[in-house]
Specification:
The structure is a single chain. The strands form 2 sheets. Strands 3-4-5-6-7-8-9-10-11-12-13-14-15-16-17 form a 15-stranded antiparallel sheet. β4 and β5 form a beta hairpin. Helix content is 2%, strand content 67%. The protein has one domain: Beta Barrel (Porin). This is Mitochondrial outer membrane protein porin 1.
């Protein structure tokens, strides 16, 4: 569901390499089944973050635990532990997530990292309601598959601040496959950000994505598009 609105767009990690007008990162990930039902995963975004994770999945429940480093541009790297779990069926699922900052300099060990949510799944419609930021923010999202053959789908997401009683974000998006190996995506939010991408796959192992984004609410002197190129090898 969130792939339509967030995955592969022109988004830069807080910590990244810079060469003149180019900002770039390197993503690495791998997974291995340790025993039946238990997987180990390693993900790393160089130089921003990285983590080791263990996942256990069964028919009606799932559990994961991870430990890693999370980067901030001004504060450096903080060790973070994360625990999440869910129970439910193919139709209805209830889950929760807790992140714990292990750094000694952290004054509040658990801050803005306690989340819980409920999701409803059907063949064509997926909807979810989640509480974020220690239950201070409510997020509702939905995904509707228009045509499975062309991967045509639309999605929407709304964020509501429960403390100030106001809507803080609305995002809508869509995707469509022109050809079996060519995917188009576009999104728009209430802050004036418009983004789009085209992703071309070459076989099952390699893909190239060209993405762009522009904020039409910025002043004219600051209004310029962001363009990114990413390559993935599986």
């Amino acid at each position: 569901m969130l792939d339509v609105l967030h995955k592969d767009y022109a988004q830069q990690s807080p910590i990244h390499f810079n060469y003149r007008f180019l900002n770039w990162n390197l993503d690495l990930s791998c997974q291995e089944e340790l025993v039946h039902g238990l997987r180990g995963l390693f993900t790393c975004n160089i130089p921003d973050s990285g983590k080791l994770e263990i996942q256990h999945l069964s028919r009606f429940s799932g559990f994961s635990a991870s430990i890693g480093l999370s980067g901030e541009a001004e504060k450096g790297y903080n060790p973070v532990a994360n625990i999440s779990g869910h129970i439910g069926t193919r139709i209805l699922t209830l889950g929760a997530n807790l992140a714990y900052d292990l750094s000694a300099s952290s004054s509040a060990k658990i801050t803005n990292n306690l989340n819980a949510g409920l999701s409803l799944n059907s063949p064509y419609l997926v909807a979810a309601a989640t509480l974020h930021d220690n239950f201070q923010t409510l997020k509702g999202s939905c995904y509707f598959e228009v045509n499975p053959l062309t991967k045509t789908a639309i999605a929407a997401e709304v964020k509501y601040d429960l403390a100030d009683y106001e809507t803080i974000g609305v995002t809508v998006g869509a995707q469509h496959a022109l050809f079996p190996w060519t995917l188009l995506k576009a999104r728009l939010n209430n802050n004036g950000n418009v983004g789009g991408l085209i992703q071309q796959k070459f076989g099952r192992k390699f893909s190239i994505t060209v993405a762009g984004e522009m904020n039409f609410n910025e002043e004219d002197k600051e209004k310029f598009p962001k363009v990114g190129v990413s390559m993935a090898l599986k």
